[in-house]
Design goal:
By secondary structure, the chain is of the alpha+beta class. Helix content is about 15%, strand content about 30%. The protein has one domain: Methylpurine-DNA glycosylase (MPG) (3-methyladenine DNA Glycosylase, Chain A, Roll). Strands 1, 2, 3, 4, 5, 6, 7, 8, 9 and 10 form a ten-stranded antiparallel sheet that branches. Strand 3 and strand 4 form a beta hairpin. Helix 3 crosses helix 4.
């Protein structure tokens, strides 16, 4: 296993962290064991001026982790159904984070299938932020935790070069929809989805 990414890794511009998290390994330990996957898709949310970022509403009980130190988790509930996991970036007081949008499963795949109810294909296990949290057993109990110790850590993985990364607009949002802050590993079958028409309008480009 690769070394756990240190807190300093996250204390940088959110867009840089979002790109460099590609290829890293998200690992979650629960009472049922360990499950992990390589990060293949991320989105950057860059502060109070970003209308799609939860920090646009200011500091609340919900958004407090976004204002915390870099390298902690921000786990929130969405649509009354799904948990989503983020890595907080930049220095304390500057609310921003990277949403982990999709993983390529690596370990604990049997556990993932049990939690997800046997999806038809392995590519459907973790190809979305809600799916990956369910598969790995990530819940709101893990909100605000340091990502340098269990139960939730991010480890170094294979280096992903710039020509292997594609940048597109973020998806699944209604504000700041054209900001090119989504990063995916080119041709990876585990990404959540690829909106070809919308990406062409915004202009896909290498990261």
């Amino acid at each position: 296993m690769g070394r756990i990414l240190p807190r300093d890794f996250y204390n940088r511009e959110t867009e840089i962290v979002a790109r460099e998290l590609l290829g890293s390994v998200l690992e979650c330990r629960t009472g049922n064991g360990i499950a992990s996957g390589m990060i293949v898709e991320t989105e950057a949310y860059i502060g109070e001026h970003d209308a799609a970022c939860h920090a646009a509403a200011g500091r609340t009980n919900r958004t407090a982790p976004l204002y915390g130190p870099p390298g902690i988790s921000y786990v929130y509930f969405i649509y009354g159904v799904h948990w989503c996991v983020n890595a907080v970036t930049r220095e304390e007081g500057l609310p921003s984070a990277v949403l982990i949008r999709a993983l390529q499963p690596l370990s604990g795949i049997r556990r993932m299938k049990d939690r997800r109810g046997e999806p038809t294909r392995d590519t459907n296990l973790t190809n979305g932020p809600g799916k990956l949290c369910e598969a790995l057993g990530i819940t709101g109990a893990m909100n605000g935790l340091a990502l340098q110790r269990k139960p939730l850590v991010i480890r170094e993985g294979p280096r992903i070069t710039s020509d292997e990364i594609i940048t597109t607009p973020r998806i699944g949002i209604t504000r700041a929809v054209d900001w090119p802050l989504r990063y995916i590993i080119r041709d990876n079958e585990y990404v959540s989805r690829f909106s070809r028409a919308r990406s062409q309008r915004a202009g896909i480009r290498p990261a």
